[in-house]
From TrEMBL:
GO molecular function, one term: protein serine/threonine kinase activity
UniProt entry keywords in alphabetical sequence: ATP-binding, Kinase, Nucleotide-binding, Serine/threonine-protein kinase, Transferase
Lineage of source species: Eukaryota, Metazoa, Chordata, Craniata, Vertebrata
Protein's UniProt name: Serum/glucocorticoid regulated kinase 1
NADP listed as a keyword: no
Organism, scientific name: Myotis myotis
One Pfam short name: Pkinase_C
Amino acid sequence: MYDNILNKPLQLKPNITNSARHLLEGLLQKDRTKRLGAKDDFMEIKNHVFFSVINWDDLINKKITPPFNPNVSGPSDLRHFDPEFTEEPVPNSIGRSPDSILLTASVKEAAEAFLGFSYAPPVDSFL
C-alpha cells in the first residue's frame, strides 16, 4: 500500500465534485513543493473553492454547529470508530514501556554520553 501511495496516480471516484477533486489532488500531490498549501500555507487551503461556503470568522468563534457531535462517555469510548481499526494490534514500536524493551549496549552508551549536560535522559528513559 505504501508503494502505491508513493508511485501510483491518485484514483478518485468519478462522482466526486470538481471542487472536491481539485482539493484532494492538491492536498495529495506527491511533489510537496506543488502541494496545496506549499506556497501560502493555510491561506491557500482556506481560499480554495471547496471551502467557499465556510464563514471562517464564525467557525473560529465557534458559532457554527458541527454537522456531527458524537456523544462519548470518556476518552476511551471508541464506539464511533470502525472496529476494523480499533481492533488492530498495536505495533511494537508504539506504546512501549521501559519494561518491554531490551536496550542494547550502544543505545545505553549513547544515552550516557550526554550525562553532565543541562539535559540528560532519565535512567528509565526509552533511550
